[in-house]
Amino acid sequence: MFLEGSPVALTLGRPDGDNPLVLVNPRFGELTGYTQADLAGRNCRLLQGEVDDKEARARLRAFLRDDTMPNVRTPILNFRKDGTPFVNLLYMSRLRGLGGETRFIFASQFDVSRAQAERLAEYDRTLDQTLTRLSPIAAESGIIVEGTLTTIANSAATIAQAKLTIATLDDGAVL
């Protein structure tokens, strides 16, 4: 399967209920320490731990509530399975059926904890390539990948948000 071989950490979740995960790829496991077996049927919010990253969580809730929002991209404080914190640049998009219904929530994750701008640019290029390759594969199954390249193009604002989150972590403040 294409997602399993992707160099980008990817997940697929159901659009209903508590948005349980149906797939996490091996790269996600490398990033977080969690495997498919650990997370199948569970919500990815377990990565957030006990820290209340209010702004990021509000953006994610707004995306999940509003079916007309095609995507969201935000840095959010997450924790690996071993408890190590990292700033995750989270991108979520809807995969829609030809009738317009949301079939899956597609997400990519990238550790920006100590990332340099050139690494973020490389991540954007890799994610763009992943989405470009995913679109025709999804289309064969009657699924449309929504709102992808516009969000990736807004990297400067997202990088600034990530730097603020990192600065807060470096100061020892709890979000």
UniProtKB/TrEMBL annotation:
- Does the UniProt entry include the keyword Flavoprotein? yes
Alphabetized InterPro entries for the sequence: PAS, PAS-like_dom_sf
Per the database record, which ranges form the PAS domain?
A: 1-67
Q: Which domain of life does this protein belong to?
A: Bacteria
Pfam families, alphabetized: PAS_9 (PF13426)
Assigned keywords, A-Z = Chromophore, Flavoprotein, FMN
Spell out the protein name for this chain: PAS domain-containing protein
